[in-house]
Amino acid sequence: MGPDLSTAAPSRPSSLTVDHRPVFHDLARFRSTLFDTKLKPHGITISQAWVLAHLWRKNGLRQSELAAQMDVATVTTSKLIDRLEGHGFVERRVDPADRRSNRVFATDAGMALVKVLTKIVYQVDAVANEGIAEEELAITLRVIGRMRENLKAELARL
Amino acid sequence: MGPDLSTAAPSRPSSLTVDHRPVFHDLARFRSTLFDTKLKPHGITISQAWVLAHLWRKNGLRQSELAAQMDVATVTTSKLIDRLEGHGFVERRVDPADRRSNRVFATDAGMALVKVLTKIVYQVDAVANEGIAEEELAITLRVIGRMRENLKAELARL
DNA sequence: GACTTATAATTCGCTTGCATATGATACGCA
DNA sequence: TGCGTATCATATGCAAGCGAATTATAAGTC
Questions:
Q1: φ, ψ for residue B132 (rounded to 5)?
Q2: Which of B104, B106, B99 is CA-nearest to residue B62?
Q3: Which nucleotides of C are covered by protein (CB under 7 A)?
Q4: Cα separation of B83 and B35, whole Å?
Q5: Burial category of B104 from C-beta neighbours within 10 Å (exposed 0-12, middle 13-18, buried 19 and up)
Q6: Angle between helices A46-57 and A108-128 (to 10 degrees)
Q7: Is the CB of B26 under 7 A from strand D?
Q8: Which of B26, B36, B19 lies closest to A47 in space, CA to CA?
Q9: Closest partner residue to A10 among B57, B111, B122, by Cβ?
Q10: Which of B9, B39, B93, B157 is the most buried (most CB within 10 A)?
Q11: What single string gives the DSSP state of each residue in A58-102?
Q12: Distance CA A38, CA A154 (A)
């Protein structure tokens, strides 16, 4: 006889409280799928689009800075940039001051996509937030942010 | 000049409200990483563990039923089961009543891992929920669940 | 100046996810 | 009975993550 997943009553709410399934994981997956569907006509994916958003705020970031800002491994940004570069949304230039580094610059076409991303974020949020009270939505976003920080800190500690 | 991501003030809270980064995606990623770290000594990943949790509730599910319950493509379960089977946590038996189907059965070793999973879920939640009021946590979990349903419905509609 | 150590990016190999195509079996209907 | 259609699992190929190993360059130390 295994642990009783169906009647477990934790002292405080946990992710199992919802329906004993990985809600956070599912939610992120569904969001990504919807984003990718909406972005497909523009030739990018949601992960690639976030790279452009970072470059929009500060163009010419080094790949390692990009990785740090996105909390992602450098190898991940490396491949994202490969694809963005392949479509002409971004270009790599070796940093003359440090020849190990690449500076990544969004092209005009790349910059234009940030506008598209912003619009689509609101579209996806509109779908996701349907039927949720504004007050509770605000609480949720704050709590989610805190959870991310908690987990990030724990992973850094390991 | 692109859209002003830094000062956009939507009429109601959106995922951009937090810090203009993909919080939901980050959160799921961090959770998975932490889960996989904790599960590694047991020889499974979090995705594989959820398969076992479903079999714990009803052993002998068909792969397509498993996929439907997990809201995942059948090809995904197929490969998860490959790996679980390779480690002896699960076994496939052709359904005598429908020779197209496989019935998937968790072994004793597989069943034992569900207990481990449950414990680790509470551990990860404990980290994630640090410093969050119980009332707000409850609201968040309910809201997250609703968001998942909203997105799932939209994806089904497309 | 030579040596060691640290950092930047990439390559390789792995897991999870998707879409699409294929082969095998089941089912419905004429 | 047979034929078309639907369903189950898998094969293939792609994107996004990760860790570990590798190469090139910088930086610090003796």
A1: -110, 130
A2: B104
A3: 7-13, 15-21, 23-27
A4: 17
A5: buried
A6: 120
A7: no
A8: B26
A9: B122
A10: B39
A11: STTEEHHHHHHHHT--HHHHHHHHHHHHHTTSEEEEE-TT-TT-E
A12: 34
Q: Which residues of chain B have pLDDT under 50?
A: 1-10
The pair phi, psi for residue A153, each rounded to 5°, is -65, -40
CA distance B97 to B26: 44
Report the run of H or E that residue B73 belongs to, with start and end.
none
Which amino acid residue lies closest to nucleotide C18, measuring CA to C1'? B73
User: For all residues of chain A together, what is the average pLDDT?
Assistant: 92
Average pLDDT over residues A19-41: 95
- Rg from Cα positions in chain A: 19
The residue type found at A68 is A
- The pLDDT value recorded for residue A2 is 42
First-to-last alpha carbon distance for chain B, in angstroms, is: 33
A128 vs B17, B138, B150: nearest CB:
B150
- Look up the protein residue whose alpha carbon has the minimum distance to the C1' of D18: A73
pLDDT of residue B11: 60
Q: Which amino acid is at A157?
A: R
SS3 B94: strand
